[in-house]
Amino acid sequence: MGGGLGLVAAIGGVLLVIVLAYAILRNRQRSSADIRQTEQATKDLYARTDRQDQASDPDKKDF
Asked: Whole-structure pTM over 0.85, yes or no?
């Protein structure tokens, strides 16, 4: 009875290691242009979120 659960846990652990290794190897292959694009998109997202927060803020006090 307990052997089935152990087998599922072992298979899950092996799959987790495989997926993590794939993600790490794939992430290392990113070019500097990809990294710059990601950084710029993140900055744009933060700026847009800040503008939305300021527009919807009912308390306009400057601290």
From this structure: no
